Predict the 3D structure of the following.
Amino acid sequence: MSASYDTTMPLITQVEYQAFQDAYDFFNAALFDGGLPQLLVTLQRRGRSYGYFAAERFTGRREAGAVHELALNPDGFTDRSDEAILSTLVHEQVHVWQHTCGIPPRRGYHDRQWGAKMREVGLHPSDTGLPGGKQTGQHMSHYIVPDGAYAQAYTRLCATGFTLHWQSLADEGQRRTKRASKTKYTCPGCGLNAWAKPAAHLTCGDCAAALIEDVV
């Protein structure tokens, strides 16, 4: 017997990819003065990375020239908020900005120019994704600056009714492993969020308050 599918669902590909196109355009205008070029946003499962930027990855079959790729990993959407997922989009948009408007570093390296632009758009570079991490290096993450440019822009985007709809399916074993390896902590003063191993002792650098472990 063949499986039955709901044929009345909306056009999933169009809805989800249009959401990322809309987000790219929104943050391009809000954080980069509209200076970033159009490119192809793709969903790619690539290792343990949340996303990547690849210059001139696509060439036209009919049009002349080449365009860049900005890829997001749907495996990294699971158990993350839309705000966190879209912060990865903006992280990669900073790479687009540096490639087109700045001085590109060697492949995969996150240098001081990239880090300065990250802070300008409201994402603080950190190799651990937490306050106090290294701000440059080959493998980098970030955390969202409370009330920074990105946080404010995301609030405006969210107010329009924007939402993402789909993520990779994770089995319960994967979810348990993820929960065991990374726990969310929140500052009771400013609302700063951070992720670390269970029972970690974290302090907010701005409020000097101990971060509270979120209980799931």
Observations:
- The chain is about 35% helix and 20% strand.
